[in-house]
Amino acid sequence: MMHRDPSTSLGMTKRIKRLLLFDIDGTLIHSGGAGVHALKSAFKERFGVADDLHDIEIAGMTDSGIVVSILNKHKIPATNENMSAFLDSYVHFLSLELPRRKGKLLPGVLQLLRRLKSRPHLVLALLTGNVSRGAQLKLEHYGVWHFFEFGAFADDHRDRNRLGPFARARAFEKHGREFAASEIDVIGDTPRDIACGKALGARTVAVATGTWSRDRLAQYHPDFLIDDLSNVEKVIDTLGW
Ligand SMILES: [Mg+2]
């Protein structure tokens, strides 16, 4: 039995698939501080230490990387047991903090995701420093979790630059197709997103909706630099999506 691709038999051109890997915090949403508050509460509850985390680098870092920095700072061994206890508690507090904080979906995000989802050649996925449970809590809270087919998370590796291959492997599992580096876009709001995209050989798209300004992001030479995602048509046009 032969299967013919209907788009070919109709003489239509099939567009080459692209894999779009989105960061979460500062790119799709602002959690209104829910993430940082949940980290503080988890540390206090599990380890009995109050720390305002002012000297801990957070934006662009993975949750597991952040937890290691906090434990190291307080000379608590970063054993698997301590890491799991911290992260479990973090996820618990995150679920409580999200509805309490005044966070938001960033401008244009919902409209952009709807438009992109309607384009069959685009595969929408996540590449984020969040642990997967945290990513799901945040994006479900803001109503956009269902747009994404899969993701690479802090559970996979604590070094963000190592997450790209996990996303690519999951794309292969789901689509039976190896995405070339040139067919992948990494979209994020920090120099760490740009570095992670470059580590993968992907196109890098920096969005200045996080804590990093357009000028500061420009110093890291992303392939595209966008103020925000509010002009949906222009974003799609510029990026050839
Ligand atoms: Mg971010």
Written description of the protein model:
The chain starts with 5 loop residues before the first helix and ends with a helix. The chain has two domains: 15-31 and 104-239, HAD superfamily/HAD-like (Rossmann fold), CATH 3.40.50; 34-97. It has helices spanning 6-9, 34-47, 63-73, 80-97, 109-117, 132-141, 164-175, 191-200, 214-218, 232-239, and strands spanning 18-22, 29-30, 104-105, 122-127, 151-152, 184-188, 203-207, 224-226. The relative contact order is 0.17. The protein has a six-stranded parallel beta sheet, with helices on both faces. The protein has ten helices and eight strands. The longest helix is centred in the middle third of the chain and has 18 residues, at 80-97. Helix 5 (109-117) crosses helix 10 (232-239). Strand 4, helix 6 (132-141) and strand 5 form a beta-alpha-beta unit. Residues 23, 25-27, 59-60, 188-190, 210 line the site of magnesium ion.
Architecture per CATH nomenclature, i.e. the level-2 architecture of the largest domain = 3-Layer(aba) Sandwich
Give the structural class: alpha/beta
| Total number of domains | 2
Secondary structure tally, helices: 10
Shape: globular
Average of the residue pLDDT scores: 94
Per CATH, the superfamily of the largest domain is HAD superfamily/HAD-like
Which band does the percent of strand residues land in? Answer: 5-15%
Quickly list its features.
241 residues, alpha/beta, Rossmann fold, 2 domains, six-stranded parallel beta sheet, 10 helices, binds magnesium ion
